[in-house]
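User: Hi! I'm a student and our assignment asks us to look at how structure tokens line up with a sequence. Could you show me two examples?

Assistant: Happy to help. In each example below, the sequence comes first and the structure tokens follow. Example one:
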Amino acid sequence: MKKYIQKLTKKSCYSYTVTIPKEIVEKYGWKAKQKLVVKDRGRGLIEIRDWRS
């Protein structure tokens, strides 16, 4: 698996953004403005998946 290093950017007082590399978005078939679920798995792990699955 290829390793990507991304920056955490502050968007507002209540949220931050992380850019997801194009290769990963294409791998999972995600589209712009698609709803995704972000789940904290603990120990620095975050799960991102489609909200319907």
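Example two works the same way, sequence first and then tokens:
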Amino acid sequence: MEQRSLEGEVAVITGATSGIGRACAEALVGAGMRVVCGGRREERLSELRTTLGEHSVATVKMDVRSPTDATRLVETALSAFGRLDALIANAGVGAYGSILDHSDDTLATMIDTNVSGTVWPIRAAVPPMLEAGRGGDIVIVSSVAGLRGGADEAVYAATKFAQVGLAGALDRELAPRGIRVTTLCPAGTRTEFAMGKGRTPDMPALATMLDPKDVAGAALTVLRQPRRMRTQLWSMWSMSEVG
């Protein structure tokens, strides 16, 4: 399979200040793309822009739960770089434990961040992609929890099932108009995810999990596909984790 060149194309990434989001930013810039990185932590956004290069990276301090912030993210891509070719909807939060273990606020934040925080950036990104007429890519970073629920992650799994369902419906809606929708479903990945909420930095299991760069590599592969094809869903596991 030949690979498309991504030189000069533009992507926006949510949750870009750490983990999978940051790895995606690094991979895309390395492939010649320009990226707009969205995240909550301003100091990390500033460091990311310095590290990857101000000519290739713009940043937006944002909350994905806000439709206004999602619009600002997309508008920044258009004003800074003049186009938008891809969205990587990566921002998400999680916590392990029984459905009875967490506060109402914790569960509400998880639902709003993972579900609404995926919908709003997509709604902002689709119109300029359609208007440009070049096609585009929406890549949703979900989880294997969205393919099969597990104990002690019921609400988190529900949000990830919602992302998978959203992506499947959007694929049917947008593929005829040239926009590809892909869901990436990684298993356990060495990130800050759920740290202090079921994970600890000294957990032995972290050493055998996927690396964020593994997931970023999958995102890059999806974007490089020739325009005649699309990947709808990609699940991935470390060799040591039982599926």
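Here is something you could point out in your write-up. The first helix runs from residue 19 to 30.
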